Task: inverse folding
């Protein structure tokens, strides 16, 4: 029997038993669909995490003021005004792996402009903020160094604030009152989107740090140079963990903390957040892979069972083929092609189902959809291997039937 004849015979056998073939393929369809959906959803989740971390700024270390204890009571992180402009300047000056630092303070404010009002968050920043956060303006300009130094009453609006107060109009050059203090708008920031914890990064107004402390947010009574937090941007290619240790050592030295004494500040490496999210995504991927593996195994066992039933039903046919000159390898090849065909067709259907399911899930979750061509090829190839593996025994059993005994079978 020629190779093409074996394929044609196998397809004819599958066509004659459409319902049985469809039910047999169901396990393979589910397994392959799970594999495709797993890869697509997992890839989309990773891209979403990377995009959210990137929106915060790459290679960032965040420093917060630390704990303070009064009367034996710990007041918690941020209670002490332990960070200053000078700390940020010293970090940028003395640690070579640091690209830029960005001290800032923030607080809730009420804005009034164009007959509208809006409650938002005001950030008092310096020029390092824009480089650290990798954030630029969409219209207008950023602050000038001279405006930062003298605490000029100028402001930059986030997209949400600009849209709420001014609608579709360009607010550049207009005046906005921040806690009844007038500020001139010099620019509107490019959109940033949400953070990893769901905060709208565009619902903000930026003010020069000195202007924010003097006129809006107020100075800390104990330390006029105090800031709420410091962003530290590490140069590309430098070790984040090593930079974190250097920053920690420098601040302890500047704050004159003795060995064994508790830090009066807190550090958080945003790479740790990304690693945690990646670990969660990998756990989900492993779980989905396990489900897909079980589905493929069940589908393969289903193929083997149906092929064994087919061998039993077609015993006389096999005997007749052997009697008229078919060789054992011809019978083996035909039944093996039937099993492989079932698995391959099921794999192709599973690919379509998996892509459709992944699209619906990613659309509902607002994630990007990433379907890797390699995963599609791998899933279909693996489904074919399942057909070969589980179809081998029934095919071998059929090829070893005795022609005379097979012809006597009723």
Result:
């Amino acid at each position: 029997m020629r190779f093409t004849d074996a394929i044609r015979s196998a397809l004819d056998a599958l066509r004659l038993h459409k319902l049985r073939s469809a039910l047999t393929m169901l396990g393979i369809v589910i397994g392959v669909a799970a594999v495709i959906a797993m890869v697509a959803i997992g890839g989309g989740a990773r891209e979403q995490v990377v995009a959210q971390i990137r929106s915060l700024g790459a290679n960032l270390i965040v420093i917060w003021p630390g704990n303070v204890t009064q009367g034996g009571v710990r007041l918690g992180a941020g209670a002490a005004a332990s960070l200053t402009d000078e700390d940020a300047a010293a970090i940028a000056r003395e640690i070579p792996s640091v690209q830029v630092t960005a001290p800032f303070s923030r607080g809730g404010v009420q804005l009034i402009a164009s007959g509208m009002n809006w409650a938002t968050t005001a950030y008092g920043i310096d020029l390092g903020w824009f480089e650290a956060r990798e954030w630029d303006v969409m219209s207008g300009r950023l602050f000038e160094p001279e405006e930062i130094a003298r605490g000029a009453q100028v402001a930059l609006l986030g997209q949400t604030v600009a849209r709420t107060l001014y609608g579709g109009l360009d607010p550049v050059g207009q005046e906005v009152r921040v806690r009844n203090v007038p500020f001139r708008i010099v620019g509107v920031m490019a959109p940033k989107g949400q953070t990893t914890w769901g905060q709208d990064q565009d619902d903000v107004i930026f003010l020069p740090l000195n202007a924010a402390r003097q006129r809006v947010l107020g100075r800390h009574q104990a330390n006029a140079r105090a800031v709420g937090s410091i962003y530290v941007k590490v140069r590309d290619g430098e070790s984040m963990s090593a930079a974190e240790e250097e920053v920690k050592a420098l601040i302890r030295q500047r704050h004159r903390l003795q060995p064994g004494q508790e830090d009066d500040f807190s550090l958080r490496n945003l790479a740790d957040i990304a690693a945690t999210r990646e670990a969660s995504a990998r756990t989900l991927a492993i779980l989905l892979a396990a489900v897909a593996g079980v589905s493929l195994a069940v589908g393969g066992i289903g193929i083997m069972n149906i092929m064994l039933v087919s061998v039993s039903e077609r015993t006389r046919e096999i005997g007749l083929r052997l009697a008229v000159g078919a060789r054992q390898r011809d019978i083996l090849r035909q039944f093996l092609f039937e099993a492989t065909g079932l698995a391959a067709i099921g794999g192709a259907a599973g690919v379509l189902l998996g892509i459709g399911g992944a699209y619906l899930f990613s659309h509902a979750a607002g994630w990007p959809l990433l379907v890797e061509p390699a995963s599609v090829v791998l899933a279909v190839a693996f489904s074919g291997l399942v057909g070969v593996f589980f179809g081998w025994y029934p095919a071998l059993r059929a090829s070893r039937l005795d022609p005379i005994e097979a012809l006597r079978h009723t």
User: Anything to note?
Assistant: The CA atoms of residues 327 and 399 lie 8 Å apart.
